[in-house]
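Thread: "does anyone have the structure for this chain?"

Original post by V.I.:
We have the sequence but no experimental structure in hand. Need at least a predicted one for the grant figures.
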Amino acid sequence: MFSRTKKLTYEETEDYVIRTIREFLDGTGGQWDWDDFTSFPTGYPEWDAVQQFCLSLSNDYPPTEKGGWCNEDGIRELERKLHQLEGNDRHPQMQS
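Reply from O.Q.:
Generated one for you, tokens below.
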């Protein structure tokens, strides 16, 4: 869970972002985890950019079902982003 009382280190933030996206995709995250993730900036521009990418999915790939975040193409884009972040070079500024 995201801590609003103590700023996470860069590495802790990296782990938090990757874990939150993974849990969102596989449905194991907590009820408010995705909302917290998309609502509170991390304080690191690279990770905030990943958050903005996630936020843009619902506009770029509108959900086809009520209550959904995005459509199947958006989910594929999020999976692609997660794969990039989990790769050997995990720093988001190096990803396209």
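V.I.: this helps a lot. The chain has four helices and no strands.
O.Q.: and The radius of gyration is 13 Å.
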